[in-house]
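Typical record was shown:
=====
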Amino acid sequence: MSWTFFTSILSTSINVFLIIVGIAGNFFILIMIVKKKKTNDLTNYFIFNLSLADLAISVIVIPLSLAYTNKTWIPREWDCFFVMPVLEHFAGVCVLTHTAISIVRYMVVSQRKIVQVIKLKHIVFFIFLIWLISFVILSATLMGGLGQFIITHTNTGNTKNSSACEIHFYNNRSRKIIYSIMIFLLTYVLPMVCTGFSHYQIYKVVSKNAKFIRGHVTKDLLVSRKRISRRLNRILLTMYIFFGSTTLPIQALYFVTGIINFSSNETFNYIWQVSFPLFYLQVVTNPLVLLYMRIEYRKELYKVSLCFSNFFNLKSRFKTNIKIKKKKQQFKAISSNRAIKLFYLKKKKKTVQVRSLHGNKKKEIKFNFLKTEKIFNAEDKAFFHTSLDSIKETFL
């Protein structure tokens, strides 16, 4: 009895944590993507869709599952037929969106001509297709396709003890096996293979392009491009690893229980209780990975944290737009959450000393455009901003 009570408290605490952090993290990601000015980034549309599905899981799926497990919500006949299959739908959207993100990233890297003709209506249609396919595979099959949820009652003598909403497959054995194999292949094996193949192709394309442009652009610009591309690929790879590791236990349980008949016992129920929170953990890991690895999200998060801080003297250091001020021979560039000072030393040296105001980092970078003291013509200003991007990568 004490062990059951302990596991119940632990499971409830974990699920409440997932709900709170999942809602806060994914809602923040949605707001950041909406605020972004660059609307031609295809990856952001699918990250938005992923965060939307994760938010739905945090708001709808986990609370209802927690209430159902703790017997505080007893589904009626309509709830059992319609609501329970729909709860499976959002998980399928997350899985398919992960796959779509990797494919889109590969297209952005290798198929530039195709990406240029893709419009917003095409993206909306593709996202709609993700939701539709997920509904057909996971929900419609449990609304009469291969089976349906029905209410079963457990009786003790003449008294009704408890009721549960369970899946009843038509032609019980064969359709259950078909459903288990289909779900395992379409929602785990195929997405993992497609995503892994896309990441491998991205690596090959990036390596090939880096060798090709090495002698055609400046070294600083080349390093900046490689660093940005490497960071985005690292984000997707981390999300891929988290997705595979958190999804595998529940997928394996679904597959094994569909193929082999298991008698439900206390140990097996504990395994289910551990597998479900582990699967839902991705609603937390996805926004945390984005917040940790994407600079623009960290900048906005820091700006939000400043609203709750009493240190108003820091406000001048954190600005969104880059501003360049000329004061004698000193040029100051303030960018986002780091302040960087650029000192124009001497005409002959053609170097700029870069110093972070928040640390002791220093770096000497050569600029070919510093040939005269008048550097603010259109051509040199464009090059200045390009070089500034590589400087920011050093500190941000």
